[in-house]
Task: structure prediction
Amino acid sequence: MCGICGFLASDPARAVDLAGDLVGVRRMAAALAHRGPDAEGFYHDGPVALGHRRLSIIDLSPEGNQPIANEDGSVVAVVNGEIYNFAELRAGLERHGHRFRSRSDSEVLVHLYEEQGPDCVTALRGMFAFALWDARARRLVIGRDRVGKKPLYYAARPEGFWFASELQALWRALPEKPEADLEAIDQYLTLQYVPAPRTAFQGIHKLPAAHQLIVTPGGTPVVRRYWQLDFTPYPGPPIREAEAVAEVRSLIEEAVRIRRVADVPVGAFLSGGIDSSTVVALLARESSQPVKTFSISFPATDHSEAVFARMVAERYGTDHEELTVTPDMVNVLPELVRRYGEPFADASAVPTYYLSEMTRRKVVVALSGDGGDEAFAGYHRYSLERVSRALLRLPGVVRVPFQRLIANLPGGGLRPAREFGAHLAEPAPDRYLYLLAHFTQSDKEQLVGPALREQLARNTVAADFARLLASSHATDPVNQLLDLDVQTYLQDDILTKVDIASMAHALEVRAPFVDHVLLEHVARLPGKLKLRGLRGKYILRQAVRDLVPREIRERRKKGFSLPLGRWMREDLADMSRDLLTGAKTRSRGLFNPLAVERLLDEHKAGVNHGVRLWNLLVLELWYREFVDSRAA
Result:
């Protein structure tokens, strides 16, 4: 696990300016030092410069340092991540006469590229982002893993093409700081993140998951998709449940097994849910020593999760550490805003940040249960969407009064239920979006100021959701929603959250449930094997019956219990009011000041607007860190 960065000059005739371009690359590498504290390396030749920060995981020797080249130096690469099938790939390459200088998994990339060219990315099984300079063809090839575990950002500018593992690092290197992208801000208000390929900055892009980009000096970057998760049902007679259960179990076991390989200590996050419990159980069965497991909680929250984590730790004899943290919210929130580089309002980044800090004291690699919900339909919203379809089949004389009853439920905590009832009859993309949105379209009509009015009218999130659902090969509604979430929420929220929060502490997190071979099989299974009635993860619960205690298998999903309402009412109350009602914020014209003050006042009075106020506070802190500094 590492940090990568680089620059390709627009003028093919000029060499990299060592006093300018290379300084920019070094500045990016310095901003990525937390991702790779073990070594630093640079390469420059003609119009290209590459930088690398190394976190040593496999082959701890200097021979594994990067940039790394083939035998004659004509192919040079920097790689972030892990290639889990590197041993098999290496054996085949050695049979073809390739010579290796290290035992590193990353070195297979340059030799595989010699054999297969850019298509070599399809042979890789792992989590990765890479940049490769082909000196003979004079082209830069960058790529990202299939589900987006490892990030990559880029900017094509007049002076050349820049890229980096983190947005904040790329921003620091650009000679001219970019302006905010207001359409991206509008999308953020809805989703709590900016979806790929956009970022919150004009002219800076995310390379989407499962995509490659090829660019030559002075050329236009060409982006292509090399893989897409296929939800087409298996042909022939319906798959027998017992057969499906056995295959799922086998693939999960394999996904965990190949993620154990490391030359450094390996542990696991343990939340007490079925996903992390499954990973820990399989790790423990394969380990000769007690597995190190880690859990975290906050005061004044429901601590039931810790009880279930201890249950698994005791069953498998893990070396378990549990920490209750009183977070310094006034300081940690601005720190997280700086780390993410763009507004990102998934509040579970806070516990992930503290959990990673604790875990890194004992291990360098940790396995997690991330991706289990998107693979096996674990979120409540899949059940609600099934309910909505059932209700829409009822006669109007029955359905309409029921809708009105739900839409008029009292209390702030029932707001999602009210939205569900009020928008039941809308098209599926819009209906699903109402289950996700921090600020719905109607919320934003009251909230936004003149600067965001044009973006509000476009409603691009709803259009993107409709396009993705329409293009899905899935034939049942559950799999259609899973297809949508894998392409949006999984890569741009869940995996982004974990990558930035963990790498802030130089901790590599591996997620067996996003193994693409496992996902490819599960995607093609019928939705009824994932969502049985209104219970998600049916086939997963069947596949791990002997591994995970019944109390964990059968209990309802529960996310991390965060006291977000209390934070916004107490810890962050003064900061929120000062920032969100201040002159600087008003002058931006993004929001109606009266609407913001109403949210603050209602929250103080007991109506829970914690999630939405958090969203606005993160946005304002980002503006002050990255946009106001541009003017300065």
Summary: The radius of gyration is 24 Å. Residues 584 and 624 are 9 Å apart (CA to CA). The mean pLDDT is 93.
